[in-house]
Amino acid sequence: MKSFINSLVSTVKRWNDYQRFRVFFAELYPILKKIKVIKLLHTINKGSILDPYNHIKNVGTFVNRTYNVEDFNILESLDKYTIDFKSLTTSEKNYTIGFILNPNEYDLYNINESCKALDVKQVIFDIGNPDLYEELNNSCVDGILLIPSFENNIIRNAFHEAANILFSESCLKIYPTFRELSIYECKRSLANFLKINNIPHPKTKVFYDYERARNFIDVSDFPVVFKSNIGASSSGVEILKNKKQALSLARRLFFKKYLRRMETDKRSGEWGYMILQEYIHEVSEFRIIKAGDSWFCYQKWKSERQTFFSGSGMKKMINPLEVVLNFCYDLACKHNFTTMCFDVFMNKQGRLFVSELQTWFGSFDPSEMYVDNVPGRYYLKNGTWIFEPGFYNVYGSIALRLCHFMNLLSE
Fold first, then answer.
1. Sequence-ordered strand ranges (E) for 110-207
2. Which of 60, 117, 218, 272 has the maximum number of C-beta atoms within 10 A of its C-beta?
């Protein structure tokens, strides 16, 4: 039986690259869930059957898998590099913070542990609660930390609508900013944001009708990159190698339904638009993370068999390039980013391009950066980048965000 299940998992992963199968699987998913097949697949594979990060999403635990240093043991270093998060705050007030999210075991654990570490009272608000705004009106919270998610288009839109109404119609202090939330998992908005602010990025076109998309494809040089509006870990990214492949995808997007890899929910079907992006050859990709005054960096990596850096499940721990840190720091200052993940390309000539901006990011390890085997962060002091050891990213980096939010409230 176990051999059969493993074979089935392998088949699903292999077939997942084919759009017709993805649509078929989404249609069949409710039935498979009802007869417990999906639960069995998840049990055998210890997580989502199509999620490259499922091995490190167990609540309260992490696995040392992606580091290039064989003799480095994170578990033995926990006590040595433990952070007193209270030392990062500037206020002694006992805050009550509300958290708006789609409640799940992983996030609730991280919220609870972060609040304990900072002696913060918490109030949980469920984005799916029809009485959400009545509860917010009757609450006495000092501020709201909004934790968006994108399980499907409906949930993504619910958070986007919540941000719109809260920033425009309420007096609540919200973290992160509306600008950051408006481009989160919304690649159409991100493309326009990068263009209007003249931020270097791969040339991107957004089409809302088939004819314009077809005309562009007719004169394009290939390969080009397609991106879905939402989707992490490259689940909605495809490299279109020729005109035939691009036109086939365009017809599906405008006349049928498109589902991302790893997607099993019919509510995530996308159509009516097409995002095409310049393919930049031979690039290095870096992830730079800002959470308040703390900065982290690693180089994305992949095996020879993998196509994309994102979603590979692999990192290369490096001493960050100062030019990359400065590039992201300048963007953060100019656009008032509070917490942001920058995915940055560097081409062979050393030019930098923004590939993605996400205010919420997967943070499953206790540190998002290791320099000479030491976990820690960078912060800028008098124009100089200073490295400070410590496990700053425990609890999904929520504690670090909470420190920054409290400091902003105290101002």
1. 121-126, 143-146, 174-175, 204-207
2. 117
Q: Counting beta carbons within 10 angstroms of the beta carbon of residue 94, is it exposed (0 to 12), middle (13 to 18) or buried (19 or more)?
A: exposed
- Mean pLDDT, rounded, of the chain: 82
From 396, 397, 410, select the one nearest 106 (Cα to Cα). Answer: 396
Assess whether pLDDT exceeds 50 at residue 72.
Answer: no
Q: Which phi and psi (to 5°) does residue 218 adopt?
A: -60, -30
Q: How confident is the model at residue 324 (pLDDT cuts 50, 70, 90)?
A: very high
Coil vs helix vs strand at 320: coil
pLDDT digits (tens, 9 = 90+) for 243-272: 999 999 999 999 988 877 666 667 777 889
b/e per residue 248-266 (b: at least 16 CB within 10 A): ebbebbbeeebbbbbbbee
Kindly tell me the sign of the dihedral angle through the C-alpha atoms of 162, 177, 290, 111. negative
**Per-residue confidence (pLDDT) for residue 237, from 0 to 100:** 85
What is d(CA 20, CA 16) in angstroms, rounded to the nearest whole number?
9
> Within a 10 A sphere around the Cβ of 139, how many other Cβ atoms?
13
Type of residue numbered 26 = A
Q: What confidence category does residue 310 fall into, taking pLDDT thresholds of 50, 70 and 90? A: very low
How are beta strands 121-126 and 96-101 bridged, if at all? parallel
Name the least confident of 17-21, 196-200, 257-261, 296-300. Answer: 17-21
Do residues 175 and 147 touch, judged by C-beta distance below 8 A?
no
| Residue 341 and residue 288 in contact, taking contact as beta carbons nearer than 8 Å | yes
Q: How far apart are CA 40 and CA 57, in angstroms?
A: 18
Residue 340 CA to residue 181 CA, distance in Å, equals: 10
**Contacts of residue 11, Cβ cutoff 8 Å, sequence gap at least 6:** none
The pLDDT, as a whole number, for residue 6 is 61
